[in-house]
Amino acid sequence: MDIILIGLGVVGQGLVEILRDRADDLAQSYDFRARIVAVATHSRGSLAHPDGLDPARLLQAAQSGHLSRYPDAPGLRRGLDALALIRDVPADVMVEATPTRLPEGQPALEYCRAALDAGKHIVLANKGPLAAAYSDLIQRAARAGRQVRFEATVMAGTPALRLAQQALAGCRISEARGILNGTTNYILTRMEAGLDYAAALAEAQALGYAEADPSADVDGWDAAVKLLILARTLFGAEPGLADLDVTGIRDITPDAVAAARAAGERWKLIARVTPEGGSVAPARVPLSDPLAAVSDATNAITYITDLLGPVTLVGSGAGRLSTGFALLSDLLDLRRLM
Ligand code: HSE
Question: Could you give the 3-state DSSP secondary structure of residue 69?
Answer without folding.
Answer: helix
